[in-house]
Amino acid sequence: MIKVLHVSDIHLGSGLSHGRTNPETGLNTRLEDFIKSLRTCIDHALSEPVDLVLFGGDAFPDATPPPYIQQAFASEFRRLGEANIPTVLLVGNHDQHSQGRGGASLSIYRTLAVPGFIVGDQITTHRITTRSGEVQVITLPWLTNSALLTRPETDGLSSGEVNNLLLQKLQPILEAEIRRLDPNTPTILLAHLMADRAKLGAERFLAVGKGFTIPVSFLIRPEFDYVALGHVHCHQNLNPNGTPPVVYPGSIERVDFSEEKEDKGYVLIDLEKGNTQWEFCSLPVRPFLTINVDVSDKEDPQGAIESAIAQKQIPEAVVRLKYKLRSEQIDQINNRALQKALSFAHSYSINPELVSQLARPRVPELGEQVTLDPITALKTYINNRDDLQEISEEMLDAANKILNEESDQEIESLKSKEQLNLL
Ligand SMILES: [Mn+2]
Q: Subunit info (predicted)?
């Protein structure tokens, strides 16, 4: 049995707007949160100890992170190298540079030839010797159109057609890798992709441009003992009733509010041919909290907002206060008092929203107390619209026609009912 730790979507350096500068370290507190999560994963890998670590891609928000963020990532992963735990770093869409192929932010590990580190920026099979035996890992990095297709091939095609063409190209390549596998060695497919049955997290907002989607059926193969995915931030197993498990561990921290209610963590796997077990390990990440309150019908809007805040105090949470009010209530809001009420939070944002005034009747003649037949109502409306004067007769004609047709139909249906009664 081979013990594997599967972690993905680290996104170190994302969501910094939800943090503040820590005066003791000079670092953004959200960067520190992300580092803490990553450190917990690596601690677990070392204490277990696992035989192999798989990273499913998306190390940083983009391919060119600032050096201090690169360093934070490297100093955690270096501990695996020191403990002689082989590690595969797969290239995700956020790791790719728009110029050229490969993962700009992760290529440095190959360039430096860090012992035990493999950078997965191509579709290929790695045979890795671990303390507990051999394992085969097929790496499938994020595919862009240019990886498998040429310009003339895609010219004039819709995105759906490009998607199909890409799948047609990918299929034989993956097939060739599968055919070369040793059937007696445990095998993992490590892929950064969007699977067609995946529930979406924040990555749909993070991704630059639309990528392509791979059917889950494509990934469910008897040759695989575990399919280790990256890209979707919401933890899930796409093959809950069968083998192999097809698992997104999700991101290790909340990148934004779309992940407010998601558990965050990583996956620990007992890999064995025909008997693979896995478990999700939760990370104690910082809570996110949305306080949503509509005070547009409240006499004391300030009091209503403050009591909504008082009911939901989670210390050190990242808080988003959203409240709805009418424009004439603005003077009743004391923003400083709201800030004070939110001081339990790690950070907060306050988003007031004015409720639409459009619901008010715009034609004063059509007040609630007036009962009008449809044609008179339409005439009153047209009289208030100078731009409709020229076509007012046609509109009234058309309205009359519609109303008459309706009454004709009513008569018809009454007739047929009568006939039915006669029968
Ligand atoms: Mn991704």
A: Heterodimer of SbcC and SbcD.
Give the strands of the sheet with 347-354, arranged side by side.
288-294, 318-325, 347-354
How far, in Å, from the CA of 119 to the mean position of ligand 1?
Answer: 16
β-bridge pairing 236-237 and 246-248: antiparallel
- Taking alpha carbons only, the member of 272, 277, 116, 120 closest to residue 185 is 272
| Residue 359: per-residue pLDDT | 54
Backbone torsions φ then ψ of 87, nearest 5 degrees = -140, 130
> For the segment 252-269, what is each residue's pLDDT rounded down to a tens digit?
999 999 899 999 999 999
Distance 397 CA to ligand 1 centre (A): 58
Cα–Cα distance measured from residue 7 to residue 265, given in angstroms and rounded to the nearest whole number: 8
Question: What length does the chain have?
Answer: 423
Beta strands in 193-303 (DSSP E): 194-195, 213-214, 226-230, 236-237, 246-248, 265-271, 277-282, 288-294
- Nearest of 311, 256, 341 to residue 61 by alpha carbon: 256
Residue 74 Cα to ligand 1 middle (Å): 19
